[in-house]
Amino acid sequence: MLRGSCLGMGGRSLVRGLGLLGVFGLTTAGVLRADDQPARPTTGTTELADNSAHRAFKRYEIGEGPRSYWIFEPNDPKPEDRAPVVVFLHGWFAVNPGFYGAWIDHLVRDGKIVIFPTYQNEVGTHPQDFLPNAVAAIRDALGVLATGVGHVRPDPGRFALIGHSAGGNLAAQIAALAADPHADLPVPQAVIATMPGEIVPIPNLSLSSVGASTLLIVMVGEEDVLVGDLRGRQIFAQTTAIPLSRKRFVLFRSDRHGYPPLIAEHTAPSGHHSRFDNGAGVFRAFQVGLAEVNALDRAGFWRMADLTMDAAFANKTLDEAARDEEQFRHLGFWSDGRKVIQPIVGIDLDSIPRVVPGNGLRLFPRNVSAKPKDAMNEGVRR
Fold first, then answer.
1. CA–CA separation, 310 vs 185, rounded Å?
2. Mean pLDDT confidence for 326-354
3. What is the dihedral of CA 286, 288, 292, 297, to 10 degrees?
4. Which of 74, 238, 277, 328 is 20 to 30 Å from 109 at the Cα level?
5. Structural domain range at position 261
6. In angstroms, what CA-CA distances link 354 with 2, 39, 244, 350, 351?
7. pLDDT at 335 over 50
8. Is residue 379 situated within a structural domain?
9. Is the peptide bond before 84 cis (omega within 30 degrees of 0)?
10. pTM of structure
């Protein structure tokens, strides 16, 4: 049994964590930016992978301010049938879809529609407004896709949420809201929360309402000095309606054996792609410089999300998707043949080392000594 804590004390990890979330913006004046065009369709092509289902994408930027959003649709060929929908929820201040463009490109070329809610107007939006802004954008985007001329039609029966940082927390909250039949939201078949952090708790919103049919993956990094793992553990523990066969908690670990080193820190899930970059972001240049793409992305975050969504859309459990545990955790090999250090994947939180933010950083509430509410004590299944 693995016990202990992962203390993120690296200065490089601290700078990277601060960078993507724009923490420097808390003390630096920023310029609010909003696109005044209600809709701006363009097309773009990307470098192709041999197994790409689609050679191009269409994008639409709709609305302005914190309830604006982007829609990215697969094209060339345009799907003839309804396509699955992924809502991609960015991290705090990471309003530029280009920061996650490599992941979005991967999803769209695989035939998925991606909705990217902005949900905040740079530094001018209160955290209490993140959730209602994101929900309003999702509803509007689904309406545009369902009725708008020329759009790929969405399949509400194949609906997933992916979120990073504050967006990872929003993904769990939106899944909880969707359980209400009056919410006017599809029930997500899959929720992928990466490095989730809660800025302001939402009262009267219980994650226990997330549906039992949902598949849940919570991903944290051992060198995440900004948010640690507290919110991730809370999300995993408080989604009590989801059976253990349908969820996994994943701790990614760093591997400095080769170059570039694979660092499991807060910005690791980001990956810049110029085709998705709209120029937004108070610290755009700095954030772009941190958003590299490596094996943690392709073989880790993207692949585990793909496996989760594939299983969810096929009405399978994560027990079935991760039946070959070694393959589920596999991240590939270095050029000398050495295996990349694999993440720890499990369902028993007590068996997984803690991630405690270091360097005195206290932007997010945390209580390392106490277990999350509704913590599970059901033992380990191997």
1. 21
2. 96
3. 120
4. 328
5. 5-357
6. 10, 45, 20, 9, 9
7. yes
8. no
9. no
10. 0.82
